[in-house]
Specification:
homodimer; Immunoglobulin-like; Rossmann fold; 2 domains; 10 helices; about 25% helix; about 25% strand
Chain lengths: ~400, ~400
């Protein structure tokens, strides 16, 4: 099969050369369609060295670029005689990236890839494999179930939607009860991210099959939970309303989680409903939410996972007062919390990385026990958070 | 709240008029953001008369249009001084539509709307309410669970993904066993369509709460199931390969369903695993698949739902030979099949409608018992299929 493809490519390459065209696309041997492509889409293609070839047909466009991830400079695409724009990027950092095409200055999704909710919208995604790393891919092991549950929240006075992972034996081992991990997404994402982008279900399936993690339920809630505003109280308006939007949008999460989600989960699922069998973790914005909520409720959560977010910018928190004062007495914290995990990727931007490093050092200096993990070679992106979950899950409920 | 908004709009309108600008947007009183918008997106907006206002910022674009549904002529958008293109369409047929922005000749998704897998890609969707019709919206009734299950199929030799609805009492009424409806999507769609576009879960929740449908499991499988090709046998190539793609892609569904999906469901769920408690239905391509598969396995399926697809173009089938000869002996068919449903929307294009009408007439002439249902005022789109399911589900398993 590969041989035939190469032969056809060479033939095509030759005929294109004879016509005076460019032959680079056909010369890119060994590139494979990304797993994030929609069925039948041959591009984007990824090389063994992680370079990516993008293509997009836009005969009338003046300029087309591709923007991969949030921080990368866009790559200019080159227009072919057939109106197809293309580019092969240099090697790209492995893992899942949101990406966009920029057509005459407008950022749009690539129809060739599935979309994933991120950056406040459904965004094209591309998953670049990391050599030798497959802990988050589907394997021939028993698979848990991912469930979607709708309910009406008293806190937000709205219909909400939970994504819930139950472990492989949940539906057969009907006498068993399970611990629960509450797992939060980042800014601009939603409750679908940890499954669709993060592959949390496959990470747990693989860990459980290997005997490295306890079977557990994972509950993924939307981190945007605006407290219901009484009818008489107007919503913020005026120049500051835009700035207030995010805090207001997340103002109700603590209450929602404690008063709506957890009681719902403990009544609808066979959970072990106590502190030592309940964990919370999150990434970026979800990490800051996790730290704020768990430290205010140490009788509720026995395990804490903070992935790529401490909440004090690049600076260090004052542990006497920050995080609801939970670290003011390190010995008491160490006794109460069974597992505390702080993670960061080695390639995250310094504005993300410095704050987490400062948090880690401050915790160390104060004698607050925690596992500090640096995801090697990955950025403020899902590959880091996949690795965090892979490291954190085995710590839980042991 | 509405009064304040109107007052603000008038103020804004006035100030814009004073500045010599255009005020049409603010003058569109009563338009509401679509339920299919991503959080925070104020456009598209829908009026009580079903007209839709679209907006999109593209300062450098030469021409922007919006294409709603498959058959509608694109609407030209008008560029404002701020680089925002906009248009308010005439009233649009109610229901769920895929739609696109056409920017300088390129069809792209609208970042303001969620995407839905259709037309072979993740496509923008807009749900236009139908006056007085709310059977598919979420209500304050007990809600079932939507589950995702991954498994390895022997037929396709690949990982596949099922979407499964379990009724509200499935996890509490642990002694109960349930009938199963296998429900197929249309061409270019996938197993997520019946939940995300169709709201099959809310339709069943509402029917079950009203005592109008039996609690049942619904299994949604991907209708594209290419039989695994032995390594020695090359895939089709040459000029005809493109034409062969769709039949080849669906060649394995019958085998996959019978040998992989149904045994998996009957072992993993508390089903009643017999013919009179097993139904199959589908829409468009899925309707043709349903007719072909059920008529070849009348000992397996006791109920058949054919929504908007008969499989013989605009013509009438020869019932002596078509559909595996299952209708050749109408009396035998009528005795064996407990419920047979044929549906079509009154506003479907004649190339869709004529074939289903001819099928219905042929069945009538031959004395094949069936329920014929015409969805009033809707097209070859999800509003028709929502209505079909709403009519068909109460027939099942009675």
């Amino acid at each position: 099969m590969k041989k035939r493809t190469m032969f056809l490519s060479m033939l095509l390459c030759l005929s294109v050369l004879l016509l005076g065209g460019v032959c680079w696309a056909q010369s890119e041997a060994g590139l494979q369609p990304a797993v994030t492509n929609v069925p039948g889409a041959q591009y984007p293609r990824i090389g063994a060295d992680s370079r990516v070839e993008f293509r997009f047909k836009a005969p009338e466009a003046q300029k087309v670029q591709v923007q991969v991830g949030a921080v990368q400079t866009p790559f200019d695409m080159i227009k072919g005689a057939d109106g197809v724009w293309s580019v092969t990027t240099p090697p790209i950092v492995p893992g899942f990236h949101y990406y966009y095409l920029v057509i005459d200055g407008v950022m749009v999704d690539d129809p060739a890839s599935y979309t994933y909710y991120g950056v406040g919208k459904d965004s094209s995604g591309i998953d670049v494999p990391e050599k030798g790393v497959d802990f988050y891919t589907i394997k021939n092991v028993p698979h848990g179930t991912v469930r979607e549950q709708w309910y009406h929240s008293k806190t937000t006075d709205s219909w909400r939607h939970l994504v819930i992972y139950t472990p492989p034996d949940y539906d057969t081992n009907l006498k068993a009860r399970y611990p629960v991990l509450y797992l939060q997404h980042g800014s601009g994402e939603d409750e679908t991210g940890w499954i669709r982008q993060g592959h949390a279900n496959f990470i747990l399936d693989n860990l459980i099959a290997a005997g490295k993690a306890k079977p557990m339920i994972i509950v993924m809630s939307n981190g945007y939970a605006a407290k219901a505003v009484p009818a008489a109280q107007p919503a913020p308006s005026g120049p500051a309303a835009g700035l207030l939007a995010e805090p207001r949008m997340t103002s109700g999460l603590e209450e929602e989680l404690l008063n709506d989600t957890i009681p719902l989960i403990d009544s609808a699922f066979r959970t072990i409903a106590d502190q030592s069998h309940r964990a919370m973790a999150g990434l970026s914005m979800g990490s800051m939410q996790t730290l704020q909520i768990t430290t205010a409720h140490l009788d509720t959560f026995g395990y804490i996972g903070a992935f790529s977010g401490a909440g004090f910018g690049a600076g260090a928190p004052d542990l006497k007062t920050a995080y609801n004062g939970a670290f003011a007495d390190p010995a008491a914290f160490n006794k109460k919390v069974k597992g505390f995990f702080v993670g960061i990727g080695t390639d995250e931007p310094s504005r993300m990385r410095d704050g987490v490093l400062a948090f880690h050092k401050t915790l160390d200096d104060a004698g607050v026990k925690h596992i500090f993990y640096e995801a090697p070679g990955t950025a403020h992106e899902w590959q880091t958070w996949r690795k965090d979950l892979f490291q954190f899950a085995p710590v839980l409920f042991q």
